[in-house]
Automatic annotation (TrEMBL):
Superkingdom of origin: Bacteria
InterPro entries recorded: KR_dom (IPR057326), NAD(P)-bd_dom_sf (IPR036291), Sc_DH/Rdtase_CS (IPR020904), SDR_fam (IPR002347)
Similarity-based family: Belongs to the short-chain dehydrogenases/reductases (SDR) family.
Record protein name field: 3-hydroxyacyl-CoA dehydrogenase
Entry-linked PANTHER family: 17-BETA-HYDROXYSTEROID DEHYDROGENASE 14-RELATED, SHORT-CHAIN DEHYDROGENASE/REDUCTASE
Alphabetical keyword list: Oxidoreductase
Residue ranges occupied by any Ketoreductase domain in the UniProt entry: 6-193
UniProt-recorded Gene Ontology molecular function terms: oxidoreductase activity
Source organism of this protein record: Streptomyces violaceusniger
Amino acid sequence: MDIHGASAIVTGGAGGLGAATARHLAGLGVRVVIADLAEDGGKRLADELGPGARFVRTDVTDEASVQSAVDAASELGPPRIAVAAHGGPVAGSRVLDRANKPYALDVFRRTLDIYLVGTFNTLRLSAARMAETPPLDSGQRGVVVNTASIAAFEGQVGQSDYATAKGGVVSLGLVAARDLAPLGIRVMTIAPGTFFTPAFGMREDEAQERWGSAIPNPRRMGRPEEYAALVAAIVDNDYLNGEVIRLDGAHRFGPR
């Protein structure tokens, strides 16, 4: 897909996987909207990337907020790419705690709202704008890349809400790809494994020592730049559609 001069919206674009993606796409000539709640980081990255980038404060669970980011992308160029790479707080707890008290329903709902509903919100509003964009010579109008997790397949103890949300993102991908196929809009899903991002709250060497040895090959945590490179490969290859790609170094969570 010819993307030079096109625009992209990247949710969670101020840090981690999203920031790496925004940088990579900008390097390919794409004009990028950094959609995030983190104003300081988002503005710094937009300044770093130059006039082809814009930060838009965005709450992925709010329709008007995401629509504003989509509108901003349309002002930068033909909207061809949407990447849902946002994160959010994950409390994490067993269905019943040690005192047999059930996991808080409002926390479960909030996690689904951020990771699943927020992803669908980004998908639907971005696709609606892409549908208004003239197709390329290939017949393609754009591509949406959603972010799941290997927890969607092998969720761990205490991940009931997160694994459920990411499992929903996986299930969404093929259905959305088929829904949007007549419009020339593709939908792909990346399921990352254990990636080092600032969210770990520790130095990378400490995180690698703690978690990196569990990865079969390469024996380290993933890097955000590797996620970004896969996004770019998906964008480039029109025949990738409706599929989930695990990006995890052959890591498989086992029972604990």
